[in-house]
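Ticket #4471: structure export looks truncated?
Reporter: QA, pipeline team
Priority: medium

Steps to reproduce: submit the single chain below to the structure queue and open the exported record.
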Amino acid sequence: MKYSIIIPVFNRPNEVDEQLESLTIQTLTNFEVVIVEDGSKITCKDVCDKYSEKLDLKYFMKENSGPGQSRNYGAERANGEYLIILDSDVVLPSNYIKAIDDEINSNDTDAFGGPDRAHDSFTNTQKAISYSMTSFFTTGGIRGGKKKLDKFYPRSFNMGIKRDVYSKLNGFSDMRFGEDIDFSIRIFKSGYKCRLFPEAWVWHKRRTDFNKFWRQVFNSGIARINLYKKYPESLKLVHLLPMVFTVGMIFLFTLCITGIITMLTSVEGKWQTTGCIMTLCAALPIMLYCLLIFADSTKVNNSIKVGLLSIVAAYVQLTGYGCGFINSWWKRCVRGKDEFSAYKKTFYK
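Actual output as written to the record:
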């Protein structure tokens, strides 16, 4: 067996149904599927049974321990030469496995990952969130699908690794968020080679509403400081941009409100002019950024509605991450607190 696909699941049987259906139409079939139910109350056992004759499928139920440890649980029970790690909310195009196989056959590598896209069937909110997580104007393009000169760090929604390398590194750590970046950092630090496979892309549903999206990116901001405390060299300039954006937006909104109040409460023309200038100076960059996001997303998604929702998604993504980053920096770097995460009771709600 060349490939083992490992999928941790928590209360998402409908997503697993779509995912397994996409695996039945793969043009290359030299793979097994390992489903690890991570203490779900709503299990996908019946869904897995439905595909038991169409796929080489193994189903396991275990107590809840988080996605990283569930992936390790699945890896211990997998038989493939390569382990492919997927989140349960991705759907695969029919040539996904073949794209991976072609890349490995042309240039062997120790670990790899692929990008993600939004499917036409996704809701407008999901498309907007997908845009905000992949656009150059929100993430600097670090999560897109283009090959870059610097290191590529696979994310756990779509990554693969040689089985023996996985075992030597003891798999994923027990970090609740950022565990995939932690793993990628350890891959590089151990001297292994890691590449981006641009054609091994997936449709990634991500979060279904902006509240869930906020909780996700807030924890991502926290995780970045947790990673910094473990690996100081991992913090790059691009990781600071959401924090800078958040602080900048707070300043601009404060300046805008101050300007409006000044205009409304001043009786002298000089102060009204000053208030007007303050308001315009603050509002202009905000409006220009919104216009940029709207225009680019509308073009990419061919939808004005998605373009408008992408403005909301971009601000949630950047300020959510920025707030989590600042919160974690204050608690861990200033106050000396231990590693933590937020929204533990409501993350999946």
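Status: closed, not a bug. The export was complete when the record was re-opened. Leaving a note from the reviewer for reference: Residues 269-301 form the longest helix (33 residues).
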